[in-house]
Amino acid sequence: MADLSGRRVFIAIFTFVALLAIAYYVFFSNKYDRKSGSFESNTVLDGNSLLFSCTGEAVPKVTKATYGPLKPTPQCTAVDVTNAMQTWAKSSAPGKAFYVGPHMFPTAPQCPGSTRTLSFSYTCVPPKILTRIVPRKEA
Predict the structure, then answer these.
(1) What is the DSSP pairing of strand 49-50 with strand 98-99?
(2) How many CA atoms lie within 13 A of 111 on its CB side?
């Protein structure tokens, strides 16, 4: 009987640890499986490459993006570039990286002498399927 009790304790502990690991993965990790509906948040310094990681037919949708100095000052702060970043996301070919820099956001403050960063988050969403309804011809 003692052997059976030890086995139950082992199964209970194993199940608890497995559920804890799943809960951590789901609630505390901001990188899921990069499939449709996943979320990713990044900060990229100027001059580094950037690649949107969506699988299959999913396309990136930028939810928030700011571009500005690594250490903001009263004269130079980060600006919202969500719309411009979405344009870059739409134009990026799947699996092809591009370089982050002022060429991406010409209207953003240049902040001479400061390293600039791009902070953004995006989700991967399924593409919109366009259908055309053609009326049926009566015979």
Answers:
(1) antiparallel
(2) 23
pLDDT-derived band at 68, boundaries 50, 70, 90: confident
Say which DSSP state 125 is in: E
Q: Does the predicted model carry a pTM greater than 0.85? A: no
pLDDT > 50? residue 47: yes
- CA-to-CA dists, residue 99 to 47, 60, 63, 89, angstroms: 6, 17, 20, 12
Is 114 in contact with 69 (CB distance < 8 Å)?
yes
Pair 59, 124: CB distance under 8 Å: yes
Mean pLDDT along residues 83-103? 76
Buried b (16+ CB within 10 A) or exposed e, 66-92: bbbbeeeeeebebeebbebbbebbeeb
How far apart CA 51 and CA 36 sit, in angstroms, is 16
Query: Is the predicted pLDDT of residue 39 greater than 70, yes or no?
Result: no
